[in-house]
């Protein structure tokens, strides 16, 4: 009895060591930029480092969120100008070397603040502890995030190559992430059994309708127009969409239109309205016929 | 004894069921009434807005000083947009009600354009005045028809829920006053030709350019498949399907689907019949972990375009979505960016293969243009900008303006606070053609809570 207790104790210690090792490894490897040339639109840890270093030098005043947006772009160009580099808005090897030389980057601090969802900055010459504020969502939530957040973060970063700490996302011009979500719901409800391009086509029809004079002018207006989509009428729109539906929506918003500028589509097996057959048809994708 | 208990239990159950059933019934009725009320509100609002529209257009016609037109026209614009949104809330999707909606949006576009114009310098032309009178007359007719329907609805206590049921069952032949009424409204509008509106009236809807600039012979199905295989790069024993476009498409195209054997990978492509140009291409597959940078991916995209004969392009925008990079290219002629000619590319960041390609806009509008000389100097254009903004970059560009015409502009990238703007100044008259606030990255909400 006592022996088994000992064995399990040893086992627990071993397990603890095993659990700690990957974290300490991460700390060692992550202290400088990776090899990549960082350009506008990029997302990830390198961008966090770039923003932090530019902020350290006072070029970047925006949020450190891991997305290379316009603010970061101008900051980088100003940095390149001041330090006599080629002004191309790309963080290549030369630029990165100069940055590392000229600035400090406290990775632990930055990542911790992002994980906790705090408001913070990373200016040089000022005590970092004075540059953070708990997020406005309340001290209790932030405290909780500190305890469990790291574990979640490790789980999350496995999926997407070290982007676990990024706190923002690229969205196509003119659309919010919520718009994309509503559209993904609609696409999933309407076409989840369809091939991928069939789903892109359904999303494209929604966008074509927004642009058409014959339909409402907003995404939600088009989707919730009574009797326009069966998935809305029977409540299937509130199923949780999968990643494929979201991808399809992003493709459609970014300019892919497999429907050939269609405004309507229907399933010939289940369509109840004879009127829909009078629309000039463009093509068939999967079960759906797309028409003008 | 047992019998008594049983009877007691059953009667309690019966009463319970009755109460429950009654509550359900009441709830259902409440929801039905709620939905009905929404429809009723939208409908009555619509008729009200059209009434108002008619009155307002009437008063603009009567205005003596043409310069006082601007606020009145702005009001007309507001009303059309509200009426338009009311139409959107009615269960008319299966009714051909498009013409009426188009009519509303035409009035809206016309009034907006004239309202924002400096009417002191640039007063309404006779043609525009004529258009306004025509719109007034049409609004009167629509108002009349709608009032008729409204009257029937109120008098006979008609329910929009019945319209829904009638439309859903495909029973349109059944006598339904509302449906009949709306069909009459639609016919009334249909009676007007767009030419009624005079030559000054530019149709604001997206022009269907129909690939008129494309050159080349019609290609066969086999050639289309060959081209698609080149793009897809899938194994030779993949399954291939080709279909032709239907009559609804104004231009002819082939749709090619290539399925790789024993996998989830599928490539799809549409190719114009004339000349065999790729309209779009999508490779559907899962993208694994990121191995290459966005910058590498953009170089791959540039190389790909060169190889496929798309030349003189500028990388205009790049963005990373999860493990894919999306790039927008625009064409360039004599150092002027041509924004209407745009091509989109999507590259996988795991192995750097092309995931997508979209050239519809490019194929529809690309041609050798006559780019006019700029009338204004760069300095003169710069002086037209808001003095608050800090200018970061400038260049020449051709864009489509609000009237759907291509205009040569000075393009300025400028910042104000933490926001970046793209501002286009017409190179001929210094008009501010477009001011775009460029989107910042959006915060991820779920991770913070």
Structure, explained:
Chain A: One of its GO terms (biological process) is spore germination. Chain A: Residues 137-149 have a biased composition (Gly residues). Chain A: Residues 1-18 form the signal peptide. The complex is a heterodimer of chains A (292) and B (449). Helix content of chain A is 50%, strand content 6%. Chain A starts with a helix and ends with a strand. In chain A, the strands form two sheets. Chain A has a three-stranded antiparallel β-sheet, with helices on one face. In chain A, helix 7 packs across helix 8. Chain A has two domains: 35-159, PGBD-like superfamily/PGBD (Muramoyl-pentapeptide Carboxypeptidase, domain 1, Orthogonal Bundle), CATH 1.10.101.10; 177-291, Orthogonal Bundle (Arc Repressor Mutant, subunit A). Chain A is built from eleven helices and six strands. Chain A is mainly α and 292 residues long. By secondary structure, chain B is α+β, with helices and mostly antiparallel strands. Chain B has four domains: 16-197; 208-276; 286-367, Roll (Nuclear Transport Factor 2, Chain: A); 378-437, no CATH class. Chain B contains ten helices and 13 strands. Chain B has helices at 2-62, 69-89, 98-116, 126-156, 160-168, 177-190, 221-232, 294-307, 360-365, 378-383, and strands at 239-244, 253-259, 266-272, 278-284, 313-321, 324-333, 336-348, 354-358, 390-400, 406-416, 419-426, 432-437, 442-443. In chain B, strands 1, 2, 3, 4, 5, 6, 7, 8, 9, 10, 11 and 12 form a twelve-stranded mixed β-sheet that branches. In chain B, strand 5 and strand 6 (324-333) form a beta hairpin. In chain B, helix 1 (2-62) runs antiparallel to helix 2 (69-89), helix 2 runs antiparallel to helix 3 (98-116) and helix 4 runs antiparallel to helix 6. The longest helix of chain B has 61 residues, at 2-62. The N and C termini of chain B lie far apart (61 Å). The interface between A and B is large, with 81 and 85 residues.
């Amino acid at each position: 009895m006592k022996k088994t207790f000992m064995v399990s104790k040893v086992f627990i210690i071993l397990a603890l060591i095993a659990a700690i090792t990957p974290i300490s490894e991460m700390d060692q490897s992550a202290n400088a930029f990776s090899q990549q040339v960082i350009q506008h639109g990029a997302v990830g840890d390198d961008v966090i480092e770039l923003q932090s270093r530019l902020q350290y030098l006072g070029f970047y005043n925006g949020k450190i969120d891991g997305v290379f947006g316009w603010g970061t772009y101008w900051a980088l160009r100003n940095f390149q100008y001041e330090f006599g580099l080629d002004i191309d808005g790309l963080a290549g090897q030369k630029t990165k070397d100069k940055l590392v030389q000229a600035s400090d980057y406290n990775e632990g601090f930055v990542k911790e603040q992002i994980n906790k969802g705090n408001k913070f900055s990373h200016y040089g010459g000022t005590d970092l502890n004075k540059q953070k504020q708990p997020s406005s969502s309340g001290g209790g939530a932030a405290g909780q995030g500190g305890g469990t957040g790291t574990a979640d973060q490790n789980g999350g970063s496995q999926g997407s190559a070290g982007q676990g700490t990024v706190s923002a996302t690229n969205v196509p011009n003119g659309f919010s992430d919520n718009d994309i979500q509503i559209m993904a719901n609609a696409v999933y409800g309407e076409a989840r059994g369809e091939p991928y391009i069939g789903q892109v086509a359904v999303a494209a029809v929604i966008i074509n309708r927004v642009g058409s004079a014959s339909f409402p002018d907003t995404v939600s207006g088009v989707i919730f127009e009574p009797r326009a989509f069966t998935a809305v009428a029977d409540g299937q729109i509130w199923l949780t969409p999968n990643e494929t539906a979201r991808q399809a929506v992003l493709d459609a918003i970014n300019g892919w239109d497999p429907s050939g500028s269609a405004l309507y589509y229907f399933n010939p097996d289940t369509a109840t309205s004879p009127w829909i057959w009078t629309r000039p048809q463009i093509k068939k994708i999967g079960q759906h016929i797309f028409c003008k | 004894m047992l019998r008594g208990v049983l009877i007691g239990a059953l009667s309690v159950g019966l009463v319970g069921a009755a109460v429950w059933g009654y509550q359900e019934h009441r709830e259902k009725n409440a929801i039905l009434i709620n939905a009905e009320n929404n429809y009723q509100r939208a409908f009555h609002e619509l008729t009200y807005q059209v009434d108002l529209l008619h009155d307002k257009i009437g008063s603009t016609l009567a205005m003596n000083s043409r310069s006082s037109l601007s606020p009145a026209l702005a009001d007309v614009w507001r009303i059309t947009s509200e009426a338009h949104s009311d139409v959107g809330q009615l269960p008319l999707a299966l009714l051909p009600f498009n013409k009426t909606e188009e009519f509303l949006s035409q009035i809206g576009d016309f009034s907006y354009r004239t309202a924002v114009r400096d009417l002191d310098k640039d007063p309404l032309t006779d043609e525009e005045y004529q258009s306004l009178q025509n719109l007034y007359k049409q609004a009167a007719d629509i108002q009349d028809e709608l009032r008729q329907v409204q009257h029937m609805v109120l008098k006979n206590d008609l329910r929009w829920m019945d319209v829904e049921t009638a439309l859903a069952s495909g029973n349109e032949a059944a006598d339904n006053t509302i449906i009949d009424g709306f069909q009459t409204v639609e016919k009334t509008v249909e009676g007007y030709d767009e030419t009624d509106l005079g030559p000054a009236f530019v149709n604001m809807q997206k022009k269907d350019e129909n690939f008129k600039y494309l050159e080349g012979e019609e290609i066969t199905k086999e050639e289309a498949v060959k081209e698609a295989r080149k793009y897809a790069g899938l194994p030779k024993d993949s399954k291939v399907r080709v279909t032709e476009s239907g009559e609804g498409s104004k231009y002819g195209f082939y749709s090619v689907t290539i399925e790789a054997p024993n996998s989830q990978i599928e490539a799809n492509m549409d190719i114009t019949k004339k000349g065999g140009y790729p309209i779009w291409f999508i490779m559907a597959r899962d993208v694994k972990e990121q191995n290459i940078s966005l910058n590498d991916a953009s170089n791959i995209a540039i190389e790909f375009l060169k190889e496929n004969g798309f030349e003189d392009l500028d990388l205009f925008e790049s963005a990373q979505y999860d493990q894919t990079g999306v790039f927008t290219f625009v064409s360039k002629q004599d150092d002027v960016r041509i924004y209407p000619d745009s091509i989109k590319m999507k590259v996988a960041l795991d192995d750097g293969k092309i995931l997508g390609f979209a050239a519809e806009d490019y194929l529809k509008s690309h041609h050798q243009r006559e780019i006019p000389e700029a009338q204004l100097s760069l300095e003169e254009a710069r002086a037209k900008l808001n003095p608050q903004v800090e200018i970061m970059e400038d260049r020449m560009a051709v864009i489509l303006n609000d009237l759907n015409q291509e205009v040569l502009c000075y393009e300025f990238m400028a910042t104000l606070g933490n926001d970046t703007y793209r501002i286009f100044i017409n190179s001929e008259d210094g008009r501010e053609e477009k001011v775009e606030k460029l989107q910042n990255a959006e915060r991820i909400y779920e991770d913070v809570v």
